[in-house]
Amino acid sequence: MEEEIELRQYWDVLRKRWMIVVVLPLIAALTSGIISFFVMKPVYQASTTLIVGKKAAEAGKDPTQILDNSVLLANQQLAKTYATIAQSRTVEQNVLKDLNLPLTVEELDSLIAINPVKTTEILEIQVTNTNSELAASIANTMAQEFTKAVIEIKKVDSVSIVDAAVIPDKPIKPKKTLNVLIAFVVGLMASVGLVFLLEYMDNTVKTLSDVEKLLGIPVLGIIPDYEMGKQG
Fold first, then answer.
1. pTM score, two decimals?
2. Cα dist from 89 to 49, 84, 145, 225, whole Å
3. Is pLDDT above 60 for 1?
């Protein structure tokens, strides 16, 4: 019974300031929608996949072939080492030169992620950019320059491109619908918190129930408030 009374009180508080509960989440969602759809630039991601330790052509001859564990482990370790070479200053400077990009090495580096795929000999080069064509070009040029660097440094042709990067047709962010939904939920939570904060800070007496809660005794009667007609 007490729980029902508490729930009813909470509902009364929300109903009393329902405008805040409704308007604030809508404003948050609308603001997020405007920013996501009209302000934020779409960001695209292009990726190329490479295999290390043996030629990709050789890997494709017999896909069911099982390598010796020691060889497989060595190639996995090699992939981690090659990931460092791929994102080296030398490789990135060559990419900037090949594409004639007006970027610093640091700026280019912030666009690139080199990910060794766990328990495999695969390296994945991911490039993000607001220009989808440029993202694909950087990824493919990175793969080419990385391959050249490995041959020059290791004196062995042990890297092959499995999948070249293609121009992405859909951005990876902003996630417009998700952003709007999150903004609405956060706005709703904030509005509920604000309503209860205002209720907590409000010490005025407006209704009979306020009097009963304040004094702890029932109201026996009320004195109506009306204007006396002017005599004349």
1. 0.71
2. 20, 10, 11, 83
3. no
